[in-house]
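Run log, item B.
One chain of 315 residues. Sequence copied directly from the ordering sheet:
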Amino acid sequence: MALLRIRNAKGSNSTEIEKKIKRGNALRQGSVWRGSRWPLAWLLFTLSVCWLTWFYVSSLDSDVTETLVSRGELVSSQPRVYAVQCSEDYDNYKRYAGCTPQTCRRAVTDGVVTREEAQLLRRLAERGLALAGSEGGASILDLHSGALSMGKQFVNIYRYFGDQVGEVFTEEDFQLYRAVRERIQAVVAETFGLDVTLMYLTKPTFFSRINSTAAKTQHDEYWHPHVDKVTYGSFDYTSLLYLSDYGTDFTGGRFIFMDQNGNRTVEPRAGRVSFFSSGSENLHRVERVTWGTRYSLTVSFTCDPEHAIADPSLP
């Protein structure tokens, strides 16, 4: 009986029910557009922000006029060398015959360090930096002084971790490090026409690990333009050994020479060595890393024996 009553009610009110269904469908269809206005507005806003961000980032390097060496290229026979006019920075320091830059250059080679050696050095850096690391996007490990990023400060890895260092590094690690340093020093001397015995390793010489984490201190702000000779004084020649690949291990992070008539960039490749005279003729910066992790080893040279440092060794 109850079922019968329902059916009868449905039949008697069918016209009214159909009207309500039609009205409800119309309302739902209308609500789709009204409800989609906010998502649509948000989508348009998001697209606008993305475009503006892309435009801003692109504009930072819109004057890149030349890629000196791309990641896909292999410069294995002789270094690719670019002459630049020397700055007056060297006049502010004592000159050393046979060493102080007379002809200034920048150069790139893939023929000094193998990719396998770069991989071994990267693992060395990873093990050391795994002990601590910066809270921001840039961490350093200096095997000479022992400096290691930890949070917002630095500690001496040899003192802070003591005997544990012997479990992290091996004598073979340091032998490879010295051998690679010697080869880099030799190619710098040959390219600049120097007596290799008149140039010395100097500080800071260090591993760096850079990722996209926001900077927490000024030490994390690696992207500012700078001149090594002005920043450190003792630098006469700067070299960088890349331990990871641009576009594969990380994005952003290209090395950029900032010239008056435009920017010129070097794309990192594991085993690649980029080197140059350290004065204002080679003003440079590193792009912000936007994804992944960039590893490199900065190896610095001076003509002043008073600023020479020794190769690192296990304590």
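Observations after the first pass:
- Residues 14-60 form the longest helix (47 residues).
- The chain is about 35% helix and 25% strand.
Flagged for discussion on Thursday.
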